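Study this fold:
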Amino acid sequence: MKKSAKDQRWVFWNDLDLEVMGEGVKRKILAYSKDLMCVENRFEAGALGKLHSHPHTQITYVVDGVFEFTIEGETKTVKKGDTMLKTDSVEHGCKCVEAGALLDIFTPLREDFVQ
């Protein structure tokens, strides 16, 4: 059963569903409000986060693994502890080099994720 983390003070990882987002990519929508959202994305090696853009500011923290990230046409390799800022409507995407997880923070919330 899918449980919503919206406006919840305590959000426990084990209580949330892991959603399949594509080949080798799964996510959990963690705590969020109308103004801010936290999402964990898990990638298998070789999985892609296709190039896209959206009208939200996003910070991505590399929890684990190695990724090749492209932001506005520039590609860099990132690993555990690295962060990336993607401002409104900037095109970005990634390729997972070594299996890992990313933590994304969005402002405002990604309504398309919870509809």
Summary: The chain has one domain: 17-109. Helices lie at 111-114. Strands lie at 19-22, 25-32, 37-43, 48-52, 57-71, 74-79, 83-86, 92-107. Residues 17-109 form a domain with the Jelly Rolls fold (CATH 2.60.120.10).
